[in-house]
Amino acid sequence: MKLKGITLLLASLSLFNCKSQTTALYVGTYTDGESEGIYRLEFNAATGELSNKTLAARVENPSFISFSPNKKFIYAVGEGSSSAVTAFKLRKDGLLELINQVSSNGKGPCHVAINAAGNKAVVSNYGGGTVSIYTINENGSLNEASQVFDHNIENEKSHVHSAQFDQNNLFVADLGRNALYHYVLEDSIYKIKSTAITEMKGNPGPRHFTMTENKKQIYVINEYANSITALKKTEHGFESFSEYTTLAPSFNGESFCADIHLSQDERFLYGSNRGENSIVVFKRNLENGTLENIQNSSVHGDWPRNFTLDPTGTFMLVANQRSHNISVFKVDQKTGKLSFLNTTHLPSPVCLLF
Fold it and tell me: Hey, what's the signal peptide range on this chain (predicted)?
């Protein structure tokens, strides 16, 4: 009886440990097929498994979603007929409760980001070529846009694809204008500082970007050129110091880059290739920021859009839009390389959020 009791206790502790290592994953999707909106899954950081898929909120084409810093609210763009940005409150059961919805002030909103204070949001409108700034209330609701910047000019169509706050700075990647814009907060409004912080030669199509923690380097992933542009901060702004292809030498087909992320320790940089259907892995020199391609890992799916590292940094999850699955990889902490673990079916996943 004593042995049986010990066995039951160990089993209970094992079950408790598994549950305690479970983290909620929210998934933005396209709803032109089977999907109905934003989904919630449970991710086990001990096993790398996804389970308990639940529809968290019905909303049209939530193609990009972002947390508030306190993780009490989620903001989603509606890349469809609504052209809206929607605020949700996280309920105790993990599902999402609608707070309000406002216009994105441009067609095809494809990205939303929240500042560190949690009181401002920026939305990138790919189709309209506009950038919209919003103030966020204490209850998480969005006010109508306080500023809207139109990047279109007479002979050049803008396709704004992403934006990020950095203290009083706002950086915007414009795929259509092949430029990285820089705005600065002055007297409570954002003012343009530079329409191109660095020269982007040809038609690379800057899509997303990531910054080092010390803000001295920016890495831009280019959709059309299948490349990463590395920038460094100077006395007068930023300048490009290197360019890297994201494709394997053996690949000869058509491909388009999508997302980019640094590892938590900034020793590795990752990018997604739609077409080659891979995640490219770069080893990063911590002293000068240069990159070395060490792997192009198959995503075990088709059209990898967004990807993310889990909170522990030991797993990578990839949203494969066309094959309707999320692939999970183990990240080697010494080398940064990826090893495929498993895959989970989900219709048209395009954004992953822990």
Answer: 1-20
Digit-coded pLDDT (tens) for 111-167: 999 999 999 999 999 999 999 999 999 999 999 999 999 999 999 999 999 999 999
* pLDDT tens digits, one per residue of 240-299: 999 999 999 999 999 999 999 999 999 999 999 999 999 999 999 999 999 999 999 999
Here the tokens at position 67 are 């947390």
Residue with the two structure tokens 């542009």: 229
Cβ–Cβ < 8 Å for 184, 175: no
**How distant, in Å, are the alpha carbons of 49, 159, 203 from that of 174?**
36, 6, 11
Whole-structure pTM value: 0.94
The pair of three-digit structure tokens given for residue 297, joined into one six-digit string: 């890992």
CA distance 317 to 309: 6
Q: How far apart are CA 140 and CA 146, in angstroms?
A: 16
